[in-house]
């Protein structure tokens, strides 16, 4: 399993992905699930992946190769004029990879399946986030649904729904993502630290504000332990139910 | 979907079940999922069900019939000497019902599948809770795992894990269950009000402390709206993460 969130704020985008990959509890490893492409001053693209590792690695390799080799550079993630066109490209590539492994085709419950969060900004457009399904189709973020999750989405959703605020600054947004990730990590062994974090500020066209957050990270530890206490205090404040 | 929790405290047991049954979002209804049997002063038994409604209704009808008709009264949920034996009886009956509908047998992913929480006390024994799988086997609650959930278990789990305390009084335990149910209801349309609540006090051998909690219930409303505010205040208290 996996857990990734892409969130849109007024001031930009925030992405977080865990790094645990597993084929059973006795076979797990650390594997990056967040990938970035950049043309300085012109575009900044981030992709996060969930699902079959062979599928997602092939997808990223194909996108990479097509972005570096001159002959194959068209279609390229570095050339497409809009985020919408990049989503079409990534969706088509994803479908192609799954179709190559799976006799039954690219459906969500296929074992070779994968889901993608794509986010970023291209000059002339606004920052946006899209979620791409294994079938290659996709949806775009709206003000009503200001974040996308892929992987193990349920444990960490209630706090996102309650505490999200589009005017948040990045420091609070990262805190929110860490609380959501912490609830998930504590409930599902197949989601694990370290977490990859990226913050994208609108019109910066740069992908360099990133960090890998380890279990030893002091602020993360403070948030993880503090959240249990904070929840219990919040709980105390509510009225009891006399039967 | 469904959501039920059975929880053990030092002073007894608490059960809560939602009542929404659905075969798609355009076909839903209210249906009881909590059932009790009692021999005053001798035993109190509670069963909650999740899964295929035809399966769970057949199961309850068979258990009911075998507990009322003189000829078929053996084996009976009102006669078995221990909770363990009742769990075996319920498990066998469940397997029998599923096998009658399903050509492929009683596995968890079968469409006729169901899961059961069984709780209560028989004189001479302690109050306990067991979870019965579609295959008919079961597990018993322990101090390390002091509650069982069936149905849509993920959204409501983080708060249970953080705020449970075996020395809680019933009023606080009900509050905890309501918070857990509220998070689930807000995230999954197939879990819905009203909720059925039952509190069992150790050595009371009575099943009469029950209540159906509606959406209009004042304390529930206070908890549901108050929890959002409480969560946000708790969240404010944590340190922000500066990147």
Automatic annotation (TrEMBL), chains A, B:
State a GO cellular component annotated for this protein. proteasome core complex
InterPro entries for the chain: Ntn_hydrolases_N, Proteasome_sua/b, UCP009120_prtse
Question: GO biological process annotations for this chain's record?
Answer: proteolysis involved in protein catabolic process
Protein name, as recorded: Peptidase
């Amino acid at each position: 399993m996996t857990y990734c969130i892409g969130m849109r704020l007024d001031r930009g985008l925030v992405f977080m992905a865990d790094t645990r990959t597993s084929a059973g509890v006795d076979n797990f490893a650390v594997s990056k699930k967040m990938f970035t492409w950049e043309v300085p001053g012109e575009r900044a693209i981030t992709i996060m992946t969930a699902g079959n590792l062979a599928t997602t690695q092939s997808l990223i390799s194909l996108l990479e190769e097509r972005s570096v080799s001159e002959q194959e550079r068209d279609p390229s993630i570095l050339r497409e004029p809009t985020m919408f066109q990049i989503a079409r490209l990534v969706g088509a590539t994803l479908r192609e990879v799954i179709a190559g492994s799976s006799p039954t085709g690219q459906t969500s419950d296929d074992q070779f399946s994968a889901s993608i969060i794509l986010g970023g900004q291209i000059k002339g457009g606004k920052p946006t986030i899209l979620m791409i399904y294994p079938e290659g189709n996709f949806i775009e973020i709206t003000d009503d649904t200001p974040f996308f999750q892929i992987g193990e989405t349920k444990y960490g959703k209630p706090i996102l729904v309650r505490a999200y605020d589009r005017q948040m600054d990045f420091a609070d947004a990262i805190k929110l993502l860490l609380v959501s990730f912490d609830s998930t990590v504590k409930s599902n062994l197949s989601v694990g630290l370290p977490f990859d974090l990226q913050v994208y500020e609108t019109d910066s066209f740069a992908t360099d504000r990133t960090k890998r957050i380890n279990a030893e990270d002091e602020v993360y530890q403070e948030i993880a332990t503090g959240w249990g206490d904070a929840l219990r205090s919040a709980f105390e404040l509510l009225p009891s139910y006399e039967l």
